[in-house]
Write a structure and sequence with these properties.
- The chain is globular.
- It is of the alpha+beta class.
- The mean pLDDT is 95.
- Helix 1 packs across helix 2.
- A seven-stranded mixed beta sheet has the order 2-3-4-5-6-1-7, with helices on both faces.
- It contains four helices and seven strands.
- The chain has one domain: Gcn5-related N-acetyltransferase (GNAT) (Aminopeptidase, 3-Layer(aba) Sandwich), CATH 3.40.630.
């Protein structure tokens, strides 16, 4: 098995954001009614291609507990009526918000959606009252442009781990 490198990135001030404009054919909507089945579906739809496996074995009860946590918020991106991607924000202690999951569906990669969806996620994180730091992690299993998108939007790497 080859080595996997994980990159931890942070943004300590909204002024670091280098946003991208919204493409005409993309809209982003917050999920306001918790549906654990939707969170599980989005995780599988987007994550399958990137080997997201940490939540695959969760029971319905565990998914329900996860999705209904008051410190979790979910947004879904749509293009031409179909799901284009999603992201989840997790509010942690001391004003910290993690972009817990972020990604596009396979058919929407390469269409210029990633930069705007990440901009939306960052703005949503900073807009969540009391936010003082936003962070995210990615790894070498992710899309080849993922790390570049994070740094282009203004995130800075603060830790790297290789397994």
């Amino acid at each position: 098995m080859s080595e996997i490198t994980t990159y931890y990135l942070e943004m300590k001030n909204v002024a670091q954001l280098n946003g991208k404009d919204q493409p005409d054919q993309l809209s982003v909507v917050e999920v306001e009614n918790d549906q654990f089945e939707l969170n599980r579906f989005l995780y599988q739809l987007v994550g399958a291609q990137w080997q997201w496996t940490d939540k695959l074995a969760l029971s319905d009860d565990a998914w329900k507990h996860y999705a209904e946590d008051k410190n979790l918020r979910t947004w879904v991106a749509y293009s031409q009526g179909a799901i284009a991607g999603y992201y989840e924000l997790s509010k942690q202690d001391n004003g910290v918000v993690e972009i817990a999951y972020f990604g596009l569906t396979p058919q929407c990669i390469g269409r210029g959606f990633g930069g705007y969806l990440l901009t939306h996620a960052i703005n949503s994180a900073w807009g969540w009252g009391g936010t003082e730091r936003v962070w995210v992690h990615t790894c070498s299993l992710d899309h080849k442009s993922a790390l570049a998108n994070y740094t282009a939007r203004g995130f800075e790497i603060y830790k790297t781990e290789t397994e």
